[in-house]
Amino acid sequence: WKLDPTNPEIARQMMRVELGEGKGRKRLELWFDRAMKLDTSYYAACEAKLLYLDPKWYGSPDALLEFGRECVASDTWGGNIPLILMDAHRSLNRYASESGVTNYWHQPEVWRDIKSAFDKFFLLNPTAVGWHHNYAWYAYEAGEWEEFNKRLPLLSPVNYSFFGGQTNFEKMVKISRERGTRQPDK
User: Fold this and answer.
1) What are 39-49's pLDDT values in tens digits?
2) Which residues, other chains included, contact 109 with Cβ-Cβ below 8 Å and sequence gap of 6+?
3) Over the stretch 51-109, which tens digit does the pLDDT of each residue have?
4) Which residues contact 81 (CB under 8 A, 6 or more apart)?
5) What is the C-alpha radius of gyration for the chain, rounded to an integer number of angstroms?
6) Residue environment code for 103-127, b if the CB has 16+ CB neighbours within 10 A, otherwise e
7) Alpha-carbon span 75 to 71, nearest angstrom
């Protein structure tokens, strides 16, 4: 760092060192702040902090979500940074799956976070059309049929492998269209 304090990668690597040494969050934040001051769109630094905050290391579910929401709310950070909140939920979904929870994505607060992450991401990156596949997948998993159906025209060309193949994608579309047009029960 003394040789080149202008390289954000050095700060990110020091975050990895802190992960291994475990000297404390204050030390992690020092290196994270240095990295983000040098590159306000440095996704790899945010990923490194998210890993540090994972419950298997030095964090908790609340710490993951707090940081993810900070990434969405920031007026300074750009690029893909809002999607860190999506990554936080992917991590938490793994823990939920391991404990037998099968409907993690159906929780209303989870969908609110995913939606807010993608809304901010697309505001910052309107030409990042490939990410509509990701948003559509999460909408489908959350049972947000209307949102899934709104994404369909934006998936051109469709990356079928992302959805498990063309047959699976067509099945998803059929289910979403049926459920998205269904009238609510009275």
Assistant:
1) 999 999 999 99
2) none
3) 999 999 999 999 999 999 999 999 999 999 999 999 999 999 999 988 888 889 999 99
4) 41, 43, 46, 71, 74
5) 19
6) ebbeeeebbebbbbbbebbbeeeee
7) 9
